[in-house]
Amino acid sequence: MLPWNDRAGRLSVLKLIVFLGVLAPGLYIAAQAATGTLGSKPITSAIHQSGDWAVRLLLVSLLVTPLRFIADWPKLILVRRMVGVAAAAYALAHLLFYVVEQAFDLQKVASEILLRFYLTIGFVGLGGLVVLAATSTDAMIRRLGSTAWNRLHLLTYPIAFIAIWHFFLQTKIDVSQPVLMLGFFVWLMAFRAMRAAGIQVRPLQLAGLAIISGVATALLEALWYATMTGVMASRILYANLDVGFGIRPALWVTMAGLALVAVNLVRARKAGAPRGRRAAVAAE
């Protein structure tokens, strides 16, 4: 079955758009390589870009379930597998580029993975992603059974955390991007906790979730800098309140959360409109 077809073999516009979307970063990296615009260290740039996209797509795959509820869009489930497999593919490319950078010296690659902690946890995360991708087929779901399969794929959450941790550790100075990914991860996990607690998905609750996630992101960023560099946590927290320093990750997380509030409001309004019209007709 072609990746852009639905289960009946028909073209799915949604799946086609997502397929092109997950393919685009790889094509962009390839285009940069072909045109010599990957920078002075092209392989290193390819390593970083492929790794960044692996983390981003992993978080997008975790966004599918919340967005299904928030936007009342059940068909989104059709693309979750595709996005997750794409995340694994970019993670494999991330490792492959690293092997190329080490001149295909597999012994050196193995020793570096064993000796450098950030590479060790990155490899663990990659191994987990590969296992999840390999078991994402319908055949594997039938073989494992739905209960065992669902339990196995709960590993997506710790794997996502490991990937972000690896992102933090390999980033030298400015950790804005890892902090941003961590902030989104906080929102994604908090949404699941909200659902597990039986809290309804409504605009007010989502707005509270956006604010809480933004504050948590700011606190985690301050804690990281205070722990790793000795910079006073209060200075980092102040930077989050001053847009003169640029829009910090905490604000991006908050704005993204509030954007989902808007999506939920639009969905609720559209869902309520037909009932309103029917009520008007009935009243006549």
Q: Which word captures the global form?
A: globular
Count of helical stretches: 12
What class, by secondary structure content?
Answer: mainly alpha
CA-CA gap between termini? 52 Å
Q: Low-confidence parts lasting 5 or more residues at pLDDT below 50?
A: 275-284
Helix amount, in percent?
over 70%
Helices and strands, in order, run as HHHHHHHHHHHH
The total tally of domains equals: 2
How many whole angstroms does the radius of gyration measure? 21 Å
Mean pLDDT: 90
* Largest sheet features: none
Give the percentage of residues in beta strands: under 5%
Number of strands: 0
Pfam families: Ferric_reduct
Family: Belongs to the MsrQ family.
Transmembrane segments: 12-33, 53-71, 83-101, 113-136, 148-169, 175-194, 206-226, 246-268
GO molecular function: electron transfer activity; FMN binding; heme binding; metal ion binding; oxidoreductase activity, acting on diphenols and related substances as donors
How would you portray this structure in words?
- The chain has 284 residues and is mainly alpha-helical.
- It folds into two domains: 1-169, no CATH class; 171-271, no CATH class.
- The chain has twelve helices and no strands.
- It has helices spanning 13-35, 42-70, 77-101, 106-115, 117-134, 138-144, 146-152, 156-170, 176-196, 203-228, 233-241, 249-283.
- Helix 2 runs parallel beside helix 9, helix 3 (77-101) crosses helix 5 (117-134) and helix 6 (138-144) crosses helix 7 (146-152).
- The relative contact order is 0.08.
- Its main location: membrane.
